[in-house]
Write a structure and sequence with these properties.
Structural class: alpha+beta
Shape: globular
Radius of gyration: 15 Å
Helix content: 25-40%
Strand order of the largest sheet: 2-1-6
Strand content: 15-25%
Number of strands: 6
Oligomer: single chain
Largest sheet: 3 strands, antiparallel
């Protein structure tokens, strides 16, 4: 699977795509690091929850050039992460105010890759 942002393909790893897809498919919902680990890596993963932090950091770095994309991955201190869409990027109010904004058209797409012959 690949991710396109404003028509441009993003160079994300498979795990980064899975995390982004998980968060983007549930905007506003907070996912703990443990929950992300169990969904993306599976229950058999015995690694550190900081692996999620590293993946989120890499996703954010790859999206730095798309600062005005209409969404972001927010850190919920002490809990985990959430995907948040907003209206005008210059109009980033607190969460209660954002809920009143009109729905933003998606600037991203998850696309199944067709095998090349």
């Amino acid at each position: 699977m690949l991710v396109r942002l404003n028509g441009e393909r993003l160079p994300l790893t498979p795990k980064e795509v899975e995390i982004l897809q998980l968060l983007a498919s549930h905007p506003g919902k907070v996912f703990s690091r443990e929950k992300i680990l169990s969904i993306v890596w599976g229950y058999e993963y015995y690694g550190d929850t900081r692996a999620v932090d590293t993946q989120i950091k890499r996703i954010r770095q790859k999206l730095q050039s798309a600062d005005d994309c209409g969404w972001e991955i927010k850190t919920v201190y002490g809990v985990g992460y959430r995907f948040e869409a907003y209206g005008d990027p210059d109009d980033r109010q607190d969460s209660e105010e954002r809920k009143k904004l009109p729905e933003t058209p998606k600037a991203y797409d998850f696309v199944e890759e067709k095998p090349t012959e």
